[in-house]
Amino acid sequence: MIRIFFSRGPLLNAMLSGASGVVGALSALPAAAAETAAPSSAHNPIAIGMFLLFVTSTLFITRWAARKNNSVSDHYAAGGKITAFQNGWAIAGDYMSAASLLGISALVFTSGYDGLIYSIGFLASWPIILFLIAEPLRNLGRYTLADVVSYRLQQRPIRAFAASSSIVIVLLYLVSQMVGAGKLVELLFGFNYTIAVVMVGVLMVVYVFFGGMLATTWIQIIKAALLLAGAAFMAFMVLQRFGFSTNTLFSHAILAHPKHAAIMSPGGLVSDPVSAVSLGLALIFGTAGLPHILMRFFTVGDAKAARKSILYATGIVGIGYALIIIIGFGTIALVATDPQYHTASGAVIGGVNMVAIHLAHAVGGNVFLGFICAVAFSTILAVVAGLTLAGSSAVSHDLYANVIRRGTASDRDEMKVSRITTLVLGVLAILLGIAFERQNIAFIVSLTFSIAASSNFPVLLLSIYWRGLTTRGAVVGGSLGLISAVTLTILSPTVWVRVLGHAHAIYPYEYPALFSMIVAFSGVVFFSVTDTSARGARERALYGNQLIDSELGMAKHG
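and the corresponding structure tokens:
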């Protein structure tokens, strides 16, 4: 019988980091994981060697990219010269995180079918982006989300709002990434936590400061290819043990798991319909509001390439999640049916989040274990590089160039501010990562997706499709969505009870997205409809011009 120690609430929240974060697999990691009989990569020279090889390779890529990083367009969007195929791989690399490999496989291992809710929710976000956002986003914008939402609205207030919301999302995400990075590197390589956080922070600054979007793109592409290759090898080895029959694999998993046939039924992770709907909304619509994901659409040459990027990314991500599901179910069956895997995977019992790591050692020995450890680390660097670039562009392009300087800043000044912001974000990320080392920060990831779904997404969607949107409605409604998402998260059981120690939560549900999105959309509509100013009338009248420009692909600059 497999004993499973699983803290449902924190780990459930943490899995929301699938678009791009490692904290999900680590913030809820039981203390016992560090003391298990797992094969320790801290003393595995192969793991250390592959780790160093990856870092060295990415530094060479950054050096090559730095020679081509000569303008604002190069720095923010790689000059728009990334192909659709390359961008699809880069989007997948930005989206599939270590938590996807470690966290979702762990959820499937512990709960079976219920673990699929995350992979399905993450994947379901891409049709939304493809059909509603990709083409107008590429045609109306240049570098950031704020370029699109400010197209026909008042530049300074709407850019200030969009940039502020994006910076909040980036900082929250960076905190979770840095804590996850420190814990992962500490666990897998034996480095001191603080040293690990500093190392990740320095590398992320180097990538963005010198290489910009081009270096970030290729790091994401390489990471996606490595992650997919590693997952494919593990899935192949698992299926080989069961004659490449999924029916046989699932049958053995049902027999081995203490819940037996119940692992093939839904309903064990999300206990009430409100939380289920809120979780689904956060997963599906949060992705469409993440600034580092939306920036990727400006790296291709036209709207057609943007759409093709999504198709490629959806296929790659879908394959990746299918492989991870096989890894999760396969580990259940192998641990119980094969003594070799049972011995090698013994630490799974104490630390379920390391299912994929232990399976890697079981199927490929120390060499493949080292490879998977290096891949897990590469996912962190890819995500934090994208986040840092999104944060620095929000400050330099939106706040500095268009709010403070009112569109008069030179490219040289904008690049200077972007690089200074990159350094500041790096220092902040390191300091916050160290400060939050011993905090349960699982809620931060769910908060990030909720904010993206409740502030950025409603304003972006309505700015594209609703003639009646005004600056007042966008700023007030988007701000209400952000504030309500933060407030409800603090009052939820995740924070109010588990973090702050109160007996009962004021807001009884795990996730705020259902209510915070309603507040956001209602606020945007109400304050736009009641805006009777002359400026509001002009903004409504400009919607026709925006439609024409969107169809022709004529982005307004400045």
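(Above: one complete record from the training split.) DSSP finds 23 helices and no strands in the chain.
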